[in-house]
Design goal:
Layout (H helix, E strand, L loop, with lengths): L6 E3 L2 E3 L6 E6 L4 E7 L3 H16 L7 H17 L1 H12 L3 H21 L7 E2 L6 E8 L2 E5 L5 H14 L3 E5 L6 H12 L7 E3 L4 H10 L3 E7 L2 H12 L4 E5 L5 E4 L5 H13 L11 E5 L3 H13 L19 H16 L3 E4 L14 E4 L6 H4 L6 E7 L2 H9 L3 E2 L3 E3 L3 H10 L6 E2 L14 E2 L2 E2 L4 H7 L1 E8 L2
Parallel strand pairs: 7-8, 7-10, 8-9, 10-11, 12-13, 12-18, 13-16, 15-16, 18-19
Antiparallel strand pairs: 1-2, 3-4, 5-6, 6-22, 11-21, 14-15, 17-20
Helix pairs in contact: 1-7, 2-4, 2-6, 3-4, 4-5, 9-10
This protein binds nicotinamide-adenine-dinucleotide (NAD).
Length: about 475
C-alpha cells in the first residue's frame, strides 16, 4: 500500500520545514511501519497563507452550486477508495477493519450531505418595525483550523472539513500525530476530485509543536477542535485573546440508564458494544450504567455473558470486534485506572488483564461496587472499562447522572413513554438515545453540554458554525 507520508499543502505533498518525522507504530503488532513528516511553525505559516490565497482567489466567491458539484466529486473519490482508507485506519490505530470500512463510508456520506445542504442553506428576510427590507446572509469566515483526535480520525476529519468547505471556507486540517494517514489521503483525494489547491491543507504533526501557532494565527478565523477537555480549554483560552470563534467537542462520561420496564434483555445484549466499541476509546462510550434494582442481577449476568462473547483480536480479521488500544501509553493510562479500582475494592466481574502478549490489547472489563468518588466513576477512562450500579429512585438516579462535569451522550431504556420524555428532558447531555445506543447521525447536531464542549458538529448546525451571520437593512 502506498502510504502518504508528507505534509499536504497547496495541492501537493511536501517535506516539513525542518525535515522532522514521526514514527508510526502498528498497535496490533507493536512494530514501526512508517515515518511521517511532522509540521513545524514555519509550515503552519505557509499553509495558512496559502489557504488564505486560495480563499481570496476564488473559493469564497464560488457559487454554492459549483461547490456542491466539487464536494460530490470528493465523495465519489472517497467511496472509490473506501477500502484503502479503511486499511490505513486499521494500520495506524488498530481499528477493526469492519468498523474502519463503515467509518470510511461515513466520511464520504458527510461530503454527500454537505454537498446537497449548501444549496438549501441561507439567510432570512425579517419584518423589522421600521419598514424597509431586512435580510440576513450567512457568509464564510475565511481560513478555519480543524484539529482532530486519533480515535475516529477519518470520519471526524470529514465531518469538520465537509461543512467548512461547503460554507465557502478554506481549511487547515491537523490530524493527531498517531493518525495522520487518512487525513493526508483525504487531502490528496479531494484535490484529485477537483478541489482547488490550497483549499484543504493537511498538517500532520505534534499538537504541542504547532497547536499554539495555528490557533493564534491572525488569519485563522475559527478553530474547530475535537479532543480532550484539557486541550480544548487551552485552545479556548488562546482564542479568547482575539475573540476567535471556537467550537469544541471534548470528553465524556456518558450514562446508560436501564429501567425495569424496558426490554432490558435487549439492553443487556447491546450495551457492551456501547462502551467497548473502538476498545472504549470513544467520547460517547456509555461507561456509567445505571440499572433499576429489580433487574440489576439478571442484567449484570446477561451483560457479562455478552461481553465474554466479544471477539478481541487482529484488526485485519473481518470478525474482530475489539482491537488493541492505540498505544502503549494509552494502555498504561487505562491500567492505572484499573489499579485504582482494585485499590478501592471494586469488584472485577470480568476482564482486567491483557489477553495476549503482543499488541496493546486489554480485555473488556466490567466493574461493580464502584464508589461515586472513585476515578473510574468520575473520569473519562478512554479504554474498555465499564461500571454498573443499581438505582431505586428516578430522581436520585438523575442527580447522580447529572453530577458529572461532562454531558455528551447517553442512552435510556424504558417502554414507558412519559418516562422516556421526562428523563430525556432531565439528562444534561447534548445527545441522547432512547432504546438504542446511537450517537452520531450526519443529519443531526452532535455536541456536548457542560465540559463536553461548545457548539455543534454535523447537521445544518455545522454550517451555521462555519459561517458569520450578517444582517443587512435596506431603507425603502
Ligand atoms: P488530544 O486533546 O490529546 O488531541 C486532539 C488533537 O489536538 C490532536 O490533533 C492533537 O495533536 C492536538 N493537540 C494537542 N495539543 C495541542 C495544542 N496545545 N494545541 C492545539 N492542538 C493540540 O485528544 P486525543 O487523545 O487525540 O483524543 C481523545 C480525546 O478526544 C478524548 O478526551 C475524547 O473524549 C475526545 N473526543 C471527543 C469527541 C467529541 O466529539 N466530543 C470525539 C472524539 C474524541
Amino acid at each position: 500500500m502506498n502510504l502518504p507520508t508528507h505534509l499536504f499543502v497547496d495541492g501537493a505533498f511536501r517535506a516539513s520545514a525542518t525535515g522532522r518525522r514521526v514514527t508510526l507504530i502498528n498497535p496490533a503488532t507493536e512494530e514501526a511501519f512508517a515515518e511521517v513528516a511532522s509540521a513545524e511553525v514555519a509550515d503552519v505559516q505557509a499553509a495558512v497563507e496559502s489557504a488564505q490565497r486560495a480563499w481570496e482567489g476564488g473559493w469564497r466567491d464560488l457559487a454554492p452550486g459549483k461547490r456542491e458539484a466539487v464536494l460530490h466529486a470528493v465523495a465519489r473519490q472517497l467511496r472509490e477508495h473506501q477500502e484503502e482508507i479503511a486499511q490505513l485506519e486499521r494500520l495506524q490505530i488498530g481499528k477493526p477493519i469492519s468498523d474502519a470500512r463503515d467509518e470510511a463510508g461515513l466520511g464520504a456520506r458527510c461530503f454527500e450531505y454537505y454537498a446537497g445542504a449548501v444549496t438549501k442553506f441561507g439567510g432570512q428576510t425579517l419584518p423589522v418595525a421600521r419598514g424597509g427590507f431586512d435580510f440576513t446572509l450567512r457568509q464564510p469566515m475565511g481560513v478555519v483550523a480543524c484539529i482532530v483526535p486519533w480515535n475516529f480520525p477519518f470520519p471526524i476529519a470529514c465531518w469538520k472539513a465537509a461543512p467548512a468547505l461547503a460554507a465557502g471556507n478554506c481549511v487547515v486540517l491537523k490530524p493527531a500525530s498517531l493518525s495522520p494517514l487518512t487525513a493526508l489521503k483525504l487531502g490528496e483525494l479531494a484535490c484529485a476530485a477537483g478541489l482547488p489547491p490550497g483549499v484543504l491543507q493537511v498538517l500532520p504533526g505534534r499538537g504541542g509543536a504547532i497547536g499554539d501557532a495555528l490557533v493564534t494565527h491572525p488569519l485563522v478565523r475559527k478553530v474547530s477542535f475535537t479532543g480532550s477537555t484539557d486541550i480544548g480549554r487551552r485552545i479556548m483560552e488562546l482564542a479568547a485573546r482575539d475573540l476567535k470563534r471556537v467550537s469544541l467537542e471534548l470528553g465524556g462520561k456518558s450514562p446508560n440508564i436501564v429501567f425495569a420496564d424496558a426490554d432490558w434483555q435487549r439492553a443487556a445484549d447491546t450495551s457492551p458494544m456501547s462502551v467497548f466499541a473502538n476498545t472504549g476509546q470513544d467520547c460517547c462510550a456509555r461507561s456509567r450504567v445505571f440499572v433499576e434494582r429489580a433487574i440489576f442481577e439478571p442484567f449484570v449476568e446477561r451483560f457479562v455473558a455478552a461481553t465474554r462473547k466479544l471477539v478481541v483480536g487482529d484488526p485485519a480479521d473481518d470478525q474482530t470486534q475489539l482491537g488493541p488500544l492505540v498505544s502503549a501509553e494509552q494502555r498504561a493510562s487505562v491500567e492505572a485506572f484499573l489499579a485504582d479500582a482494585r485499590g478501592r475494592g471494586s469488584r472485577f466481574v470480568c476482564g482486567g488483564g491483557r489477553p495476549q502478549p503482543r499488541g496493546f490489547y486489554l480485555e473488556p472489563t466490567v466493574l461493580l461496587d464502584v464508589g461515586a468518588d472513585d476515578r473510574c466513576w468520575r473520569e473519562e477512562i478512554f479504554g474498555p472499562v465499564v461500571a454498573i450500579v443499581p438505582f431505586d429512585d428516578e430522581a436520585a438516579m438523575l442527580r447522580a447522572v447529572n453530577a458529572s462535569p461532562y454531558g455528551l451522550s447517553g442512552s435510556l431504556w424504558t417502554n414507558n413513554l412519559s418516562r422516556a420524555l421526562r428523563v430525556s428532558r432531565a439528562v444534561q447531555s447534548g445527545v441522547l438515545s432512547v432504546n438504542s445506543h446511537s450517537s452520531v447521525h450526519v443529519e443531526a447536531p452532535f455536541g456536548g453540554f457542560k465540559q463536553s464542549g461548545l457548539g455543534r458538529d454535523l447537521g445544518m448546525a455545522a454550517l451555521e458554525g462555519f459561517t458569520e451571520l450578517k444582517n443587512v437593512y435596506v431603507a425603502e
